[in-house]
Amino acid sequence: MVTDNNTFRISPLIRLTLLSLYGALTIPLPFLAQVTAAPVPAYILWLGLALGLVILVGVLSEKVIVNSQGISVTYPQWVPFRSGWSLKWTEIKDLKMRTTGQGGLVYYFVTHSQEKAYLLPMRVAGFSRLVKQVEEKTGINTIDIRPLAQPWMYLLLLLCTLFLWLMDAWVVWTGFFT
C-alpha cells in the first residue's frame, strides 16, 4: 500500500557524479588562466565557476512529490530559472514513450486535454517505487518503464571523473611548480 505523501529527490549517485564532473572540468581553468597569462583574469573565472555551481546545485535540487491528489515536480524558491509542474491523477491520460537523440527512452505524461506533455522524472532515487505509485494511482501499465540511465553508467562516469581529477591535479601542479 502506498503512503499518502512521498518525496523523491535526484539520486545521490547522480548528484555526486555531476557535481564532481563539473568541478573536474572547470576548477583547473582559473589556475591555467593564471599560468598562461590568459586575457580573462582568474577572479572572473572563479566568479563564473561559482555562479555555474549555484545553477547546477539548483537544477539538481529537483524534488518530486507524490500524494493522493497527484504528482508534482518542484524546485526551491531560490531557483527562479526552473519552473516545476503539477498534475492531478485524474488529468493524466497516458504515459508516452519518446526516444532521445542519443537513443535512450524517456516517458511523458499526457493529459486528457493534450495541451502539454510532462516529463516523467527518471533520475530520482527510488524510481521503481515512483513508477509503482504512478501505476497504482493512474491504472497505466508501467511494466516496461526503466530508468534512462542505469547506476553502473553513473559509477563508470564517476570513475572517469576521478581519473580526470588526477589529471587536473597533475596539470595544475606542473603549471605552477615546474
- Biggest sheet statistics: 4 strands, antiparallel
Helix and strand run: EHHHEEEEEEHH
Number of helices: 5
Strand order of the largest sheet: 1-2-3-4
CA distance, first residue to last residue: 64 Å
Oligomer: single chain
Approximate shape: elongated
Broad structural category = alpha+beta
Percent of residues in β-strands: 15-25%
Domain module count: 1
User: How much is the radius of gyration in Å?
Assistant: 20 Å
Number of strands: 7
Helicity range: 40-55%
- Report mean pLDDT, rounded to a whole number: 92
Uncertain regions spanning at least 5 consecutive residues: none
SSE map:
Blueprint: E1 5-9, H1 12-26, H2 28-35, H3 42-59, E2 63-67, E3 70-74, E4 85-88, E5 92-99, E6 105-111, E7 117-119, H4 127-138, H5 151-177
Antiparallel strand pairs: 1-2, 2-3, 3-4, 5-6, 6-7
Helix pairs in contact: 1-3, 1-5, 2-3, 2-5
Protein described:
This protein is of the alpha+beta class. The protein has one domain (5-177). It contains five helices and seven strands. The protein has helices at residues 12-26, 28-35, 42-59, 127-138, 151-177; strands at residues 5-9, 63-67, 70-74, 85-88, 92-99, 105-111, 117-119. The strands form two sheets. A four-stranded antiparallel beta sheet has the order 1-2-3-4, with helices on one face. Strand 5 (92-99) and strand 6 (105-111) form a beta hairpin. Helix 2 (28-35) runs antiparallel to helix 3 and helix 2 (28-35) packs parallel to helix 5. The longest helix has 27 residues, at 151-177. It is elongated and about 65 Å long.
